[in-house]
Amino acid sequence: MALEHAILVSLLEQPGSGYELARRFDRSIGRFWTATHQQIYRVLKRMESDGWVIAEEIGQDGRPDKRAYSVAEAGRAELITWLRDPVQPEAVRHELAVKIRGAAFDDAAGRAALISEVERYRKTHEAVLERYVHGEGRDFPAGTELDAGQRLQHVVLRGGIAYERMLLDWLDDVLDTLRAL
Q: Which residues form the Transcription regulator PadR C-terminal domain (predicted)?
C-alpha cells in the first residue's frame, strides 16, 4: 500500500487541510499506517500535481490561509482500482523475535538484558492497547448507531486491539520462558 491510498481514504471520509490530515493519521490511521507530517505534505503536493486531489485556499481570521484538500475523480478512480487489486500476505519481520531465538547463544547476563528489553517492549504495547481502547470508547460508544464507514473504521480498530492483546500474551509467554532458563 502506498501512502497515497491511505490519504485518499482519509480524504474521502472527510476532506481537510494537510494539518488536519496529519492529526487524523496521529489519531486513527496511524493505528495501521504511519507517516510523518512532512511525508503527508510531500505526497499531497504530488497528488495535487497528478490530479488526484483538489486543493482550495481557505482564509482564516488572524492566521495564514490554509489549503483544504478533497479527492478529485482521478483520485477516486485510482483508489477504486487499488481497492480491487488482490492483497498479498505480508511477510513478518520481527527483530525482537530474532533476538529471542538468539538468546540461546548468550550468557545469563545477556538473557537478563533481553528480559529487560522484552519488559520495556511490553510496556510500550500496553500503552498502545490502552490508547486503542480509549479511542474505541471515545469514537465508538456502546449503543451508538454507526454508518457503514464508521462500522468499517471500528472493525479495523478492533483488529488493532486484538493484535495488541495477542502480542501482550505472547510477550508474557516469552518472559516466562526466558525467566525459566
A: 92-178
Residue 3: partners with Cβ closer than 8 Å, 6 or more residues away = 33, 35, 39, 40, 43
Query: Per-residue confidence at 30, pLDDT binned at 50, 70, 90?
Result: low
Instruction: In whole angstroms, give the CA distance from residue 33 to residue 165.
Output: 19
DSSP conformational letter for 85: S
Q: Angle formed by the axes of helices 148-180 and 108-139, to 10°?
A: 160
Q: pLDDT tier at 31 (50, 70, 90 boundaries)?
A: low
What confidence tier does 107 reach under pLDDT thresholds 50, 70, 90?
A: very high
Per DSSP, which regions of 22-137 are E strands? 53-60, 63-71
Nearest-angstrom CA–CA distance, 80 and 181: 52
Tell me how far apart the alpha carbons of residues 115 and 179 are, in angstroms, rounded to a whole number. Answer: 8
pTM: 0.81
